[in-house]
Design brief:
heterodimer; A: mainly alpha; B: alpha/beta; 8-stranded mixed β-sheet; 13 helices; 8 strands; 17% strand
Chain lengths: 307, 277
């Protein structure tokens, strides 16, 4: 029986197959680091490579990127319907620049993570029904990657590094903040986003004070639900990954129920995270600016000819 | 003394082609550019900043890969490239030339500026600098191995470096200052950047300019903590011999981080250089 490690596997700790997959995640999703979803999934040694093999062609697709772009734009509309935060923080010029770069990184990647997570959930549950709107699908519901035009790989050259403070920081202010965020948002592990914003404690402290009441409001919950519905509809346009359902995982000794529980948890949390980052970004950028992808892809690569 | 977060808050930012540099820019008048070494950042100049700012304009950049400048794993961090970046940075902020002061590998960058970009250098000061084949030191050679990233967490790496750094001081600074010197490297990204910086240490980049040292024609001051365990004073003596008119000021009792051990003497010497003494 394979044992789930119980904790996320950091990028610098990754070895062998995990290190290979982490590299491919960064390249395929066009991101400078590996988010908490993947670091947590990496703790399931049977699931993780199967999941990636199934999802990589989908995540590489222009259709996936386009669907993520639309989801991001919708998140902006929803976030701008909520109260502005107006965070006041004493930041220098260099700090402000780098904070905005960090917000742009997460504003870009989080919608992709949500779509990815929903599709993984469907793959786990063996949803073989092919949506009539899905691209690249075959009649048996499997995805043929060769049919999907692909985005150019690699993190954009102007994307910030995914730098994070340790999840157990020595700084007492950060320890308090992390504890409050985990408690308020009911997180077992702190998302990468908050750990990155913790690079500027003088920002994160007032930002969280402004964000917490909004993020726990009824209006926010409504926006979260709306974004979740939009994300599911966006996922309907994409192929369902195959070869990673729960029965197969269980047969191979994986902690299948834990995998599903983890995936469902991320799918539940990500819409709120997307809205939070958008709310924080709103202090710096207009709605029009935020609706556009911070890292638009160039012309996609053509699908390779079937061999 | 300023704490490191307050120091960071004062930093400005210049975007260069494909990267960015965070830097301090305080005071008015005759400009002096301070270039730090490894494994520190511009905060290492904190003990002398107050004195220098009273006498002129002080600019202290974090070299790319260090401090709070760009620390992505995407560029060359050799002192050859660093000198080119400083040249670009000076152009970007409209600084035609300045007195260049460099410590440790920052001194190596300063020597490359003086020999490759002489128009940028009005006067030159190197403090316990790398030169000729005096570097890299063993610790940095080992730290630069790519495997170190997997072997050491950021927390452990900083702990080891803190311990190693202490031998560079005659009087070890208080913990908050010592912590501040390594603070930018306390994340996994920061740690990896420092590893890459260490991997980029290349003695060829000072040996290749050794024949050019006699061509330095600007007033040059060589400051040296005599008891430096990392950079022996013999190299300072050789620099004095090679650079025409260079003056060597020995700082008795001081070690590698002379600006910490003898801040008044370092500041006074640099001010004297700028003022024509």
């Amino acid at each position: 029986m394979f044992t789930h490690t119980g904790r996320p596997i950091g990028e610098h700790e990754a070895r062998g197959q995990t290190a290979r997959i982490y590299h491919e995640i960064r390249q395929t999703l066009r991101v400078s680091g590996v988010n908490l979803n993947f670091r947590t999934w990496a703790g399931f040694p049977v699931f993780f490579p199967l999941m990636w093999e199934a999802m990589q062609p989908i995540a590489a697709a222009q259709a996936f990127e386009t669907a993520s772009d639309r989801l991001r734009a919708r998140a902006v509309d929803l976030a701008f319907g909520l109260p502005a935060l107006g965070v006041r923080a004493a930041l220098g010029e260099s700090q402000a620049y780098q904070l905005q770069q960090a917000l742009a990184l997460y504003h870009y990647i989080n919608p992709k993570l949500l779509l990815f997570t929903i599709l993984v959930g469907r793959g786990l549950q063996g949803s073989s029904r092919r949506s009539p709107t899905a691209e690249g699908g075959r009649s048996d519901g499997r995805c043929d990657a060769r049919l999907l035009p692909r985005v150019p790989f690699g993190a954009p050259p102007n994307m910030a590094a995914m730098e994070m403070v340790d999840e157990a920081p020595d700084d007492p202010t950060l320890r308090r903040l992390f504890s409050e965020i985990r408690r308020t948002l009911r997180l077992s592990s702190l998302n990468s986003d908050y750990r990155t914003l913790a690079l500027w404690p003088d920002y994160l402290d007032p930002a969280w004070s402004a964000l917490a009441p909004v993020a726990t409001s009824a209006a926010f919950a409504d926006a979260q639900d709306a974004l979740t519905r939009e994300a599911r509809q966006a996922a309907d346009t994409l192929p369902v990954p195959a070869g990673m359902d729960l029965r197969l995982l269980a047969a191979r000794g994986e902690s299948a129920e834990r995998v599903l529980e983890t995936t469902v948890r991320f799918a539940r949390l990500l819409p709120g995270l997307i809205l939070n980052i958008t709310l924080l970004s709103r202090d710096w950028r207009s709605a029009e600016h935020l609706r556009a992808s911070p890292f638009p892809v160039g012309p996609g690569l053509s699908a390779a000819s079937p061999s | 003394m300023t704490d490191w977060r307050a120091f960071q808050r004062q930093q400005k930012l210049a975007e260069l082609d494909g990267t960015f540099i965070s830097y301090l820019d305080e005071g008015h008048g005759e400009p002096v550019v301070l270039l730090h070494g490894i494994p520190t950042w511009s905060f290492c100049w904190e003990p002398v900043l107050g004195s220098l700012v009273r006498h002129g304009r002080v600019l202290a950049p974090d070299l790319p890969g260090f401090g709070f400048s760009d620390k992505r794993d995407t560029f060359d961090r050799s002192i050859g490239r660093q000198a080119e970046r400083i040249d670009e940075w000076m152009a970007r902020i409209g600084l035609a030339s300045a007195t260049i002061v460099g410590h440790d590998i920052g001194g190596g960058v300063a020597l490359r500026l003086a020999t490759r970009f002489p128009a940028r250098v009005r006067k030159l000061c190197v403090i316990n600098t790398v030169s000729y084949d005096s570097w890299p030191v063993e610790l940095m050679l080992q730290f630069g191995h790519p495997g170190v990233n997997r072997l050491l967490s950021a927390r452990r790496a900083v702990s080891l470096l803190t311990h190693a750094l202490k031998s560079g001081f005659a009087t070890v600074p208080a913990s908050p200052m010592l912590e501040g010197l390594l603070a930018p490297y306390a994340t996994e990204i920061g740690k990896l950047s420092l590893i890459r910086n260490a991997a980029a240490l290349n003695t060829n980049l000072t040996t290749e300019i050794a024949p050019l040292l006699p061509s330095i024609s600007v007033p040059t001051l060589i400051l040296w903590g005599e008891e430096d365990p990392f950079q022996p004073i013999a190299y300072g003596e050789r620099l004095r011999w090679d650079i025409p008119g260079a003056r060597l000021l020995r700082l008795r009792g001081a070690r590698h981080f002379a600006m910490f051990d003898r801040p008044d003497d370092v500041a006074s010497a640099v001010i004297g250089l700028i003022g024509g003494r």
